[in-house]
Amino acid sequence: MTEKSYAPSSNENKLAKQQDVKHDAHLAKAPKKEDKKVEKEEIKKEKKTVQKVKKDFAILNSYNISVSSKVSRDICNFIRYKPIERALKELKEITQFKRALPMRGEYPHRKGNDIMAGRYPQNAVNHFIKLLDSLNANSGVNGIEEPVILEAVANIASKPFARFGRWKRKSTNVYLKSVEKNKLKELKKYLKH
Question: Is the dihedral of CA 171, 63, 81, 130 positive or negative?
Answer without folding.
Answer: positive
